[in-house]
């Protein structure tokens, strides 16, 4: 187990160094930060002085080393557009994105798993066919169209939910949360549903296919031959084995929700990292883009590590395989 963790940690470190190198290349080949800071009319001596103070006159790998050291401390310099520290901007926006992703992931799990189980156990029922039709729509429709349709129906026509913003938030130290207020929950419903639809349909189809596969295995047939109740077979044996691959996919999808919430945050003007990144791309704000890239990579690396450890703990075949190898 310790060897497994150390190997995964080493892989995570190598991935983060590679991503940091790609982010560092943004500073080298996408615009000139000195020009952004001083403007086109700056004098040559001003440019030389700022380059020296920023360390841009040093050799390439020396600059990368200092960038890597600062990134490890969460420092990416100043935003070229806002003039504020990038770490502060990310810290202000990250809670909104994380809460949106977590609510969407919980919604996808709590709805997608029961729908997938029902579609597998009741294949010929009308409701099962409706679930499969809904899954095709959820996979096919683009996220921005789902968001616009939800705004049209539930905000414009019915007036049940607001169409933009995060609502009232509560300050918990450096963290801001909208999940502790009624207004915050009202504001998060539509963007969370929009973000969860694709993940929900993916989980539903995965659970259905895995459940059907497990139900055809020999140990399920043996359980039926022993006279075990259907509820025990379906939920005590089949579902438990079905959730092993679902665990992996769900973990990876959580990282995807955080990374690719850009469209949803833009449609609903959700004040998260996705909206900040879109604005950074529009104004070529390189420090913000580099910080976003490194943070998203860190999220994926951490989630992958956690999923690998959970998978190792849940699936006994991995432990037996490693023991046999030793």
Question: Explain this structure to me?
Answer:
- By secondary structure, this protein is mainly α.
- It has a domain at about 85-265: MetI-like (MetI-like fold, Orthogonal Bundle).
- Helices cover about 75% and strands about 0% of the residues.
- It has helices at about 1-30, 35-40, 45-55, 60-70, 85-120, 125-140, 145-155, 180-215, 220-225, 230-260, 260-265, 275-280, 285-315, 315-325; strands spanning about 170, 175.
- It has a two-stranded antiparallel ribbon with strand order 1-2.
- The longest helix is centred in the first third of the chain and has 36 residues, at about 85-120.
- It starts with a helix and ends with a helix.
- The mean pLDDT is about 85.
Provide a compact summary of the structure:
By secondary structure, the chain is mainly alpha-helical. The protein has helices at residues 2-29, 33-38, 44-54, 60-72, 86-121, 126-140, 143-157, 182-215, 218-225, 230-259, 262-267, 273-282, 286-314, 316-325, and strands spanning 170-172, 175-177.
Layout of helices and strands:
Blueprint: H1 2-29, H2 33-38, H3 44-54, H4 60-72, H5 86-121, H6 126-140, H7 143-157, E1 170-172, E2 175-177, H8 182-215, H9 218-225, H10 230-259, H11 262-267, H12 273-282, H13 286-314, H14 316-325
Helix content: over 70%
How many beta-strand segments? 2
Radius of gyration: 24 Å
Task: Give me the strand/helix succession.
Answer: HHHHHHHEEHHHHHHH
| Rounded average pLDDT | 83
First-to-last CA distance = 12 Å
Please give the CATH class of the domain at 87-265: Mainly Alpha
Characterize the main sheet. Answer: 2 strands, antiparallel
Overall 3D shape: globular
Strand order, largest beta sheet: 1-2
């Amino acid at each position: 187990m310790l060897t497994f963790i150390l190997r995964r940690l080493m892989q995570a470190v190598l991935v983060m160094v590679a991503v940091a190198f790609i982010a560092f290349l943004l500073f080298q080949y996408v615009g000139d930060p000195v020009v952004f800071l001083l403007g086109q009319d700056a004098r040559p001596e001003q440019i030389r002085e700022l380059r020296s103070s920023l360390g841009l006159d040093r050799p390439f790998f020396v600059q990368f080393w200092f960038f890597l050291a600062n990134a490890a401390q969460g420092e990416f310099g100043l935003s070229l557009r806002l003039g504020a520290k990038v770490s502060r901007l990310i810290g202000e926006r990250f809670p909104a994105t994380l809460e949106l992703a977590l609510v969407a992931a919980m919604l996808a799990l709590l709805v997608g798993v029961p729908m997938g189980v029902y579609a597998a156990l009741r294949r010929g029922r009308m409701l099962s066919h409706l679930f499969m039709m809904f899954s095709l729509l959820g996979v096919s429709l683009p996220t921005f169209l789902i968001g616009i349709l939800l705004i049209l129906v539930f905000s414009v026509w019915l007036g049940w939910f607001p169409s933009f913003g995060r609502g009232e938030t509560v300050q918990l130290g450096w963290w801001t949360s909208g999940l502790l207020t009624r207004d915050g929950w009202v504001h998060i419903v539509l963007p969370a549903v929009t973000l969860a639809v694709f993940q929900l349909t993916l989980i539903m189809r995965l659970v259905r296919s895995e459940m059907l596969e497990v139900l055809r295995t020999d140990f399920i047939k043996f359980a039926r031959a022993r006279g075990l109740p259907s509820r025990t077979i379906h939920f005590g044996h089949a579902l438990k084995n079905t959730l092993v691959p679902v665990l992996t996919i769900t973990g990876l999808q959580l990282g995807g929700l955080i990374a690719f919430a850009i469209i949803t945050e833009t449609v609903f003007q959700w004040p998260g990292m996705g909206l900040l990144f879109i604005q950074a791309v529009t104004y070529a704000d390189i420090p913000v883009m580099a910080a976003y890239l490194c943070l998203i990579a860190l999220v994926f690396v951490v989630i992958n590590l956690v999923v690998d450890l959970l998978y190792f703990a849940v699936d006994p075949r991995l432990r037996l395989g490693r023991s046999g190898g030793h």
